[in-house]
């Protein structure tokens, strides 16, 4: 089904998706439209797929005013760098990308700045030590806040005491670093009787979440709670907990981040205790911001997405049915 959708999108976008993967292209873009080059991380989760679909379908619905060049980096920052360099050669109006990791962007961002092309960071940031003038703005959730909210919920679920394991996202990714920071700092400052006994990276994937959780259950005699940096890893952990003969959401409390439909279904089933929303539906914000940047206008350095916290008392079947991702 994904292949069919991709083919339809390619047709609607008049081959722009294919063109974006030619990093040596010297074809200049159509100046009558807003021309955006977007370098996506890859397909590590349902959340990431939702973000990609939102961006591609928004562009497909507005082909009279938008020309999108899209690249899939397949979780490799070098692929993103090559794609961005290709966008520079094309002469796009704006470059947007979701950084695979925080570091290693100075050279390519310097090339964007030299070419006079504004850069939008999407859903993830880069190393705070990098010259912030190298990018124009970031459109993203507050990942530190998400980690803090997860910690507050976990504290309530455990009654202030217990042992917790943490399923981290991709090592070096800003979302991983900041969600861990928010969760761990809150626990250290406010929960002396809650011990985080292990951190391991599941790379934001369900399969890795399941495998790591299974290994942790074999390693530790008792685990009271799991904080997963995204819903896909939490859903994988739920599978492992069931396979171990335990009840997820009861024997082991689980809190995660993202707010995908599968997580809501797990909350309604009593197997996931909470998901902290981090919306992937950023297309309108991205393209609206790109219009302003093409016109030479100034925008905020960080455009914060509005997110919510979903526990069992807030999730209904109606909410799940209305969820688009």
Which percent bin holds the helix content? 40-55%
Main pleated-sheet profile:
6 strands, parallel
Strand order of the largest sheet: 2-1-3-4-5-11
Strand content: 15-25%
**What letter string, H or E per element, gives the SSE order?**
HHEHEHEHEEHEHEHEHEHEHEEH
Q: What's the total count of β strands?
A: 12
Structural Rg: 20 Å
Output mean pLDDT.
91
Unreliably modeled segments: 1-27
Task: Describe the structure in your own words.
With 325 residues, the chain is of the alpha/beta class. 44% of the residues lie in helices and 19% in strands. It is built from twelve helices and twelve strands. It has helices spanning 2-12, 16-20, 46-61, 77-90, 106-115, 143-158, 174-190, 206-219, 231-243, 261-268, 283-294, 317-322, and strands at 34-40, 66-72, 94-97, 119-122, 137-140, 162-168, 194-201, 225-228, 253-258, 274-277, 302-304, 309-311. Strands 2-1-3-4-5-11 form a six-stranded parallel β-sheet, with helices on both faces. It has a six-stranded mixed β-sheet with strand order 7-6-8-9-10-12, with helices on both faces. Strand 8 (225-228), helix 9 and strand 9 form a beta-alpha-beta unit. Helix 4 runs parallel beside helix 5. The longest helix is centred in the middle third of the chain and has 17 residues, at 174-190.
Q: Can you lay out the helices and strands and say which pair or pack?
A:
Layout: H1 2-12, H2 16-20, E1 34-40, H3 46-61, E2 66-72, H4 77-90, E3 94-97, H5 106-115, E4 119-122, E5 137-140, H6 143-158, E6 162-168, H7 174-190, E7 194-201, H8 206-219, E8 225-228, H9 231-243, E9 253-258, H10 261-268, E10 274-277, H11 283-294, E11 302-304, E12 309-311, H12 317-322
Parallel strand pairs: 1-2, 1-3, 3-4, 4-5, 5-11, 6-7, 6-8, 8-9, 9-10
Antiparallel strand pairs: 10-12
Helix pairs in contact: 4-5, 6-7, 8-9
